[in-house]
Amino acid sequence: MSLPLIELKNIEKSYDGNLILDDLNLSVKENSFVTLLGPSGCGKTTTLRIIGGFETPDKGSVLFNGQDITSMPANRRPLNTVFQKYALFTHMSIAENIAFGLRIRKKPQSYIDDKIRYALKLVNLEGFENRSVDSLSGGQQQRIAIARAIVNEPKLLLLDEPLGALDLKLRQDMQYELIRLKNELGITFIYVTHDQEEALTMSDTIVVMNKGYIQQMGTPEQIYNEPENAFVADFIGESNIVDGIMLRDELVEIFGAKFVCVDKGFGVNKPVDVVIRPEDIDLVKPEDGTLCGVVTHLIFKGVHYEMEVTTPDGFEWLVHSTDMFPVGQKVGIHVDPFDIQIMNKPESEDEEAAGVNE
Amino acid sequence: MNSKKVRWLAAPYGLWMAGFIVIPLLMIFFYGLTDRNGAFTLSNLFSIAAPEHMKALILSLLLSAVSTVICLIVAYPLALILRSRNIGKGGLMVFIFILPMWMNFLLRTMAWQTLLERNGVINALLAALRLPPIAIINTPAAIVLGMVYNFLPFMILPVYNALAKIGDDVINAAKDLGADERQVLIRILMPLSVPGIVSGITMVFVPALTTFVISNLLGGSKILLIGNVIEQEFTRGSNWNLGAGLSMVLMVFILLSMALLGRYDKSGEGGAF
């Protein structure tokens, strides 16, 4: 195991008596693309600002390459940040913006010129040296903000919702652009977003946060397919979260019907949360289904139909399918065993926030 | 609302401008360019070259420049502190600094007169402490003091506003790129607050250049600023033509200084250009 590039240990931070981060531990390996994902107020931006040196944690320490940098001021940290609203220097030309960090470090002019040209080429804005900041679109400004950060050759780049202010199409283009940049430069990215799709598209590792706690950390596939609790399941993609009873290993009862699943070790007759993704529900003939219901809602979404199937107990199942079933039709619900995700029920609100489920 | 109606709504302002700005200005021009008999002459303008007028003008320019510089030196760090501390979002502190402006200008200047007098409050305090008295009243220093005291808020406000507009992220970005506090100040805060500095300079320099009240009260009758000369031509000397002529010359100096400053204020926040 290589040493982690950045490590947060027992970080605690509160503002005006509100606990934002509580005993946060996070370790990021070199050359990875880690995304901190969560709703606003979950502490993701605070975490990033603590790594960047713009906030000091109340407790805990920040290690960079094993060295404690908790009290090191931002201007001496060996990392760079791309801010949400670009934060370009409007009184300087594009070239001067990019050169800022290099000039501070008193690099020779020829080196600076080379770097400016290289960075502009990297972000596909060649020839923009003498343009003013105001003449650039939002997407272009964001590219300059990235260029300004990467010319300093940081080992770690922090990105605070860098695409938040861009429109959808541009955002998607920039997502691919960032992945390309990351691969070309070989530097570690820590990326903050509240957009789950962005997180799934771009990251090697997603850290799902809520109320100052890490809910789950894993690859995009793990986070999506095996959410550890109801919060993660609900936050990442759409899902049906229902109450179930784990009868025994590999068998769960939902609304009186027995579903075969692949989860083990929950005990016998244990109440659990069951997550089933809308695209994992197969609608079949009523006699072939494990549960029966009636289609109560139908919307055409382009790639698929979105339907709501109401079962006799009153639960409305969200179903995505390329097959269309008209409203009012009786259907059967079938779910393959490996598409059923079983989670322990949190025993209290605090525990839910803390993501304790083991 | 159609545009015709809107245009009518502007009529009172048109009247106001005509009655209280355009006509008085034309009258000044008329008086300035004629002699007592109403004949055209440039002698009123050229009389600025007369030694006593030149001396007053130079002293005025000097004292207002010194006052402006002192105001900037005092106001800039204060505005920086207000910005960074975010004391009640800066509102209360700014309010306190603006508060004296709510009292009558004459009253405040006369208060300084009593404070600075030979047997005034300050000298009484110094005597109580067995320190030698200061003889500052009726000196150029007293005038500068009065100018700085009266016009300081006009410097603080625009500079603070300009600094407050700079986002925290911009400063953080500079630090992130390696800049220390001094470099942030010199490379980011100062250049970005230039529009505020320009506004502040204009708002202090122009009234300081034309004042005659402060020099009357704190400078005694011996120190004449160009404002005093003009005032005397209108009141005691009854030579309106000469007063108007000198006013026009002063106006040229003000316009020149504002044009000069305007070149550094691209956002057009300060000055008339």
Structural descriptors:
heterodimer; A: 358 residues; alpha+beta; Rossmann fold; OB fold (Dihydrolipoamide Acetyltransferase, E2P); 2 domains; 5-stranded antiparallel β-sheet; 9 helices; B: 273 residues; mainly alpha; MetI-like fold; 14 helices; globular; disordered C terminus
Structural account:
The complex is a heterodimer of chains A (358) and B (273). Chain A is α+β, with helices and mostly antiparallel strands and 358 residues long. Chain A has two domains: 6-225, Rossmann fold (3-Layer(aba) Sandwich), CATH 3.40.50.300; 238-347, OB fold (Dihydrolipoamide Acetyltransferase, E2P) (Beta Barrel), CATH 2.40.50. Chain A is built from nine helices and 20 strands. Chain A has helices spanning 44-52, 94-104, 109-122, 138-150, 168-185, 196-202, 220-225, 230-235, 349-354; strands at 6-15, 18-28, 33-37, 59-64, 67-68, 79-82, 156-160, 188-193, 205-210, 213-218, 240-248, 251-254, 257-260, 270-276, 281-284, 291-300, 305-310, 316-321, 330-335, 341-344. In chain A, the strands form four sheets. A six-stranded mixed sheet of chain A has the order 6-7-8-3-9-10, sandwiched between helices. A five-stranded antiparallel sheet of chain A has the order 13-12-11-14-20. A five-stranded antiparallel sheet of chain A has the order 15-19-16-17-18, with no helix packed on it. In chain A, a hairpin with a 2-residue loop joins strand 9 (205-210) and strand 10. Chain A is elongated and about 80 Å long. The mean pLDDT of chain A is 91. By secondary structure, chain B is mainly alpha-helical. Chain B has a single domain, classed as MetI-like fold, CATH 1.10.3720. Helix content of chain B is 73%, strand content 0%. Chain B has 14 helices and no strands. Chain B has helices at 3-9, 11-32, 43-46, 51-85, 91-98, 105-116, 121-128, 140-165, 168-176, 181-192, 194-210, 213-219, 226-234, 240-262. In chain B, helix 4 (51-85) packs parallel to helix 8. The longest helix of chain B is centred in the first third of the chain and has 35 residues, at 51-85. The radius of gyration of chain B is 23 Å and the shape is globular. The two termini of chain B are 32 Å apart. Mean pLDDT of chain B is 88; it is low at 267-273. Chains A and B meet through helix 2 and helix 4 of A and helix 9 and helix 10 of B.
